[in-house]
């Protein structure tokens, strides 16, 4: 048994088993505990700051989406009355111009691959 312990790199020291009684100074232990508590509070503060920023960003996004929804509701109400809002006209004419430009670009390339070998984006930039 001793030979196998020596071969495996395990060397047993004579004495008691288990945990030895801590001879740590009580003041040092208390200071370590205080330092740990300070670090914990700092981490907690950072976590709450991050969450607050996340919430405020989401609230801004919600406000922007509500404004957009109100705009669409106004457009729908106008179209129900038979009026086409100028914004929609601009969008429609812009899309027609964009399509014409895309068709012209496709004809110019006529099967040529992109310089980097990737497919062109199907959405306008």
Write up this protein.
There is one protein chain. The protein is mainly α. The chain has three helices and no strands. The chain has helices spanning 2-7, 26-80, 86-109. Pfam families: bZIP_2. Residues 1-25, 102-125 are annotated as: Disordered. Belongs to the bZIP family. ATF subfamily.
N to C succession of SSEs: HHH
Strand coverage percent: under 5%
Secondary structure class reads mainly alpha
Give the terminus-to-terminus CA distance.
Answer: 75 Å
Total of helices: 3
Task: State mean pLDDT (0 to 100 scale).
Answer: 78
Shape: elongated
Based on CA atoms alone, the radius of gyration comes out at: 36 Å
Q: How many strand elements?
A: 0
**Low-confidence residue ranges:** 112-125
Query: What share of residues is helical?
Result: 55-70%
Describe the largest sheet. Answer: none
């Amino acid at each position: 048994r001793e030979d196998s312990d020596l071969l495996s790199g395990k060397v047993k020291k004579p004495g008691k088993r288990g945990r030895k009684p801590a001879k740590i100074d009580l003041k040092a232990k208390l200071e370590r505990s205080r330092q740990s508590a300070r670090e914990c509070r700092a981490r907690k503060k950072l976590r709450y700051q991050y969450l607050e920023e996340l919430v405020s960003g989401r609230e801004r996004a919600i406000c922007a989406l509500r404004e957009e929804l109100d705009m669409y509701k106004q457009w729908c109400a106008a179209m129900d009355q038979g009026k086409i809002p100028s914004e929609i006209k601009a969008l429609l004419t812009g899309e027609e111009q964009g399509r014409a430009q895309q068709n012209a670009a496709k004809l110019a390339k006529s099967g040529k691959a992109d310089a980097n070998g990737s497919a062109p984006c199907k959405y306008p930039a």
